[in-house]
Amino acid sequence: MTYNAASRKDIRTAEKSQVMISTIDREVIAGLMSVPNGRHWINERLAEAGVFRDPFSPDALVHAYQAGLRAIGVKLFNDVILYAPDQFIQMIREAHERSAADDARINANRASDIRDADGNPGEYDEFGRWVVDPDASEGAQPTQ
């Protein structure tokens, strides 16, 4: 049977179908965003889709692919903002905490690998550069 946009019956059927789809979307998004693993999963999908970056590429095919992927991500983003705005903020906080913990772990590993000639670890200077021995310009050796 074909859809007739002039038929009130077909319009009501389409509206009921859309309400059912919206209800399912809302329940799925709310369910995912209600638990930490679900929020992490949503955040990963948004990042993979490139929602928060420009899809531009000088290669037209790459650009088209990235723009299409981003369009799907933007749809998911809009659903999350519509159905779970408070959990979205929590998701961003959790992602920031994971990122900060990863950065701290990487910096700790880096700091433990770089030592001066006497075996002392280095430190960051006021410009954020890693300095093994602020008084000596050489002598940094990775530990074996």
Give an overview in words.
- The protein has 144 residues and is mainly alpha-helical.
- It has a domain at 1-83.
- The protein is built from 4 helices and 4 strands.
- It has helices at 8-33, 36-49, 60-83, 85-113; strands spanning 114-115, 123-124, 130-131, 141-142.
- It has a two-stranded antiparallel sheet.
- β2 (123-124) and β3 form a beta hairpin.
- α2 (36-49) runs antiparallel to α3 (60-83).
- The relative contact order is 0.08.
Short note summarizing the structure:
The protein is mainly alpha-helical and about 140 residues long. The chain contains 4 helices and 4 strands, in the order ααααββββ. It has helices at about 10-35, 35-50, 60-85, 85-115; strands at about 115, 125, 130, 140.
Sum up the structure in keywords.
about 140 residues, mainly alpha, two-stranded antiparallel ribbon, two-stranded antiparallel sheet, 4 helices, 4 strands, elongated, disordered C terminus
Structural classification: mainly alpha
Strand content: 5-15%
Strand order of the largest sheet: 1-4
Q: Round the mean pLDDT to the nearest integer and report it.
A: 86
Largest sheet: 2 strands, antiparallel
The oligomeric state is single chain
Rough outline = elongated
Work out the helix count: 4
Low-confidence stretches: 139-144
| β-strand number | 4
- State the end-to-end distance: 74 Å
Helix content: 55-70%
- SSE sequence, one letter per element: HHHHEEEE
Rg over CA atoms: 25 Å
Task: Set out the fold topology.
Blueprint (H helix, E strand, L loop, with lengths): L7 H26 L2 H14 L10 H24 L1 H29 E2 L7 E2 L5 E2 L9 E2 L2
Antiparallel strand pairs: 1-4, 2-3
